[in-house]
Amino acid sequence: FCLMAGTAGLPHLLTRFYTVPNQAEARLSVAWSLFFIAILYLSAPALAVLVKFEVMNNLVGSPFSELPHWLAQWSRVDSSLVEVTDVNLDGVLQFGELKLSADMIMLASPELAGLPYVISGLVAAGGFAAALSTADGLLLTISNAFVHDMRLGTKNGIETDEGRVILSKFALLAVAMCAAFVAAWKPAEILALVSASFSMAASAFFPGMVMGIFWKKASRTGVVLGMLLGLGVTISYMIFNAPSVRALFGLPLNSGLIFGIQPISAGILGAPAGFLAIWLGSL
């Protein structure tokens, strides 16, 4: 639910649909987007299962003298990516003697399947291009929205296109620097951060978008209240159930979960709160 509702409400995706000439093209674009998103969300867990099967059945239990060449190659590139150590000195690779990083699961999957290392390079290039594409869309949307909503770029009290464009460039630089600082800080694993962002988008943007389209009585006040309450419920649930926070206050882990919902999926609680706040605020 959080992935689908979050994807539907992501601002940098919604702005893409304004680049087509008419409504029919926008609907066709949405249909193709859903098709490829479904492929992505279904293939990711399938890839994880296939790689684990390959590692457990064809790699674990092999003599160290017969290990595939790609293990040594990748360990020379970066020892944190892959590491094998004969702990019990029996000359046979055990599962506990193999260390594969999360990035390695994606990079090594072509070579696990017997494909040449060039395919791994294409996979890495594709991942890097996808990251850049997502980053530039987000940065542009954040900076433009900030300048627009703060009513910046005015001259004699009147907004000008030139002033807005200039300030959006400065805002873009500031947002990029903040993002780089957080990325260097590494507050959590990338999967946790990305999944949390989908929950936040599902709770903050999805209710307002749906109610604004399908309910004529939805008002600005109601939508703002819905965004604040939905996002507040989601972030509060995430923070309150974070392992570090619970350890700080001496609370048992997972004791604060509602219906067993993990913090990463908090959007499933924030979205209904957002819908309710929009309804009450608009009335």
What does this molecule look like?
The chain is mainly alpha-helical. It is 69% helix and 4% strand. The chain has twelve helices and four strands. The chain has helices at 2-9, 11-14, 23-59, 69-77, 102-112, 117-149, 161-185, 190-204, 206-214, 220-240, 243-248, 267-282; strands spanning 82-84, 98-100, 154-155, 158-159. The strands form two sheets. It has a two-stranded antiparallel ribbon with strand order 1-2. Strands 3-4 form a two-stranded antiparallel ribbon. Helix 6 (117-149) packs across helix 7. It is globular. The two termini are 27 Å apart. The model has no long low-confidence stretch (mean pLDDT 85).
Number of helices: 12
- Span of the ends, CA to CA: 27 Å
Average predicted confidence as pLDDT:
85
Number of strands: 4
Q: Unreliable segments (pLDDT under 50, ≥5 consecutive)? A: none
Binned, the helix content reads 55-70%
Shape: globular
Query: What's the main sheet like?
Result: 2 strands, antiparallel
Q: What is the oligomer described by this structure?
A: single chain
What class, by secondary structure content?
mainly alpha
Radius of gyration: 24 Å
Q: What string, H for helix and E for strand, traces the elements in order? A: HHHHEEHHEEHHHHHH
Query: Order of strands across the widest beta sheet?
Result: 1-2
The proportion of strand residues reads: under 5%
List the helices and strands and how they pair.
Elements: H1 2-9, H2 11-14, H3 23-59, H4 69-77, E1 82-84, E2 98-100, H5 102-112, H6 117-149, E3 154-155, E4 158-159, H7 161-185, H8 190-204, H9 206-214, H10 220-240, H11 243-248, H12 267-282
Antiparallel strand pairs: 1-2, 3-4
